[in-house]
Hints:
Blueprint lengths: L1 H16 L3 H12 L4 H8 L5 H40 L15 E2 L1 H15 L3 E2 L5 E2 L1 H4 L11 H4 L17 E2 L5 H10 L3 E10 L10 E11 L4 H16 L6 E6 L4 E12 L6 E2 L4 E11 L1 H6 L8 E8 H9 L12 H7 L1 E2 L13
Helix pairs in contact: 1-4, 2-4, 5-11
The structure holds 3,4-dihydroxyphenylalanine.
The site of 3,4-dihydroxyphenylalanine has 11 residues, from strand 10 and strand 11.
Amino acid sequence: MDGLDALKGKYLEGIAGAADEAALEDLRLAALGKKGEISLKMRELGGMDPVLRQSTGAALNVLKDEIDAALRAKKAALGDAALDERLRSEWLDVTLPGRPRRQGTIHPVSQVMAELTAIFADMGFAVAEGPQVESDWYNFDALNIPPEHPARQEHDTFFMNRAEGDNRPPHVLRTHTSPVQIRAMTEQGAPIRVIAPGRVYRMDMDQTHTPMFHQVEGLAIDRDISMANLKWVLEEFCRAFFEVPSVELRFRASHFPFTEPSAEVDIRCSWEGGQLKIGEGVGWLEILGSGMVHPKVLAAAGVDPTEWQGFAFGMGIDRIAMLKYGIPDLRAFFESDLRWLRHYGFAALDMPDLAGGLSR
Length: 360
Ligand code: DAH
């Protein structure tokens, strides 16, 4: 029995001091494995006399259970310690606020679209949409620009490829937002009041022109709408958009195939000290084309020109964004330079509305 006590002391001590699971496994094999010390002693039982065999066998079983229990307890303790260590080293404070530099900003074009939509919505205009790949009929014919009309050349149009053997006129990337006038009137009829902001395309590239740019179309048709209504709407828009108490607009006689009469509109501004100020000074800046919708355009959209009349206008969104926010080069709008976006961008989730102040 002395031998067993010594074995017990040796193993329990070894288990208590084991540094990791590998050391524990070595101890288990040495004691309880097939050729382990306890197992060998069990094998010797067969040659003992029955009385001694019974007492030694019972003692061996107790010892075996003790060692087994000690091994399990130590294994669990080592596992807990490893988990504690992992939790300590992988600690993460999920309550830390996000890093502000990672927040995106709203592009000035999106900001200005939201601003002008808010202003025109306040005046009762809904938003209408049309496709950017447009048929030649919507982009030109329906707007009173027949195939040989010189205005077609002036638009520097991008044409889509035609399938071989297809002799129909090719689709185009819309050169202006005016085709949305036709689509909106065809769908909704008259009376109608809509704006149509969106992308347009022309083959042109310099400091103030890019092959893709943005326009907003305006259209108001009813029984007695006149140029006077157009003037009021545009003045009201400019005052609200440029956030100045008053603006002065100049209507210059012009020509567009889809309006009669037609006017280009300039806004009074000053360039003193290299700084642009809207609403004062001796300078004039062109911001849009407009006029009374041509009877042929109404008819093309299924609206009876003997019963209905109204105005339309088309304004360059990038242009008024440059004016309002003092951005000198149009090309930078579309270069996706993060430094530019951080400088000129607007806070996300801060939607402009008239009650809260437009640009804040
Ligand atoms: N579509 C013209 C352009 O892109 C702008 C324009 C002029 C739109 C007069 C109109 C309008 O609705 O009445 O140059």
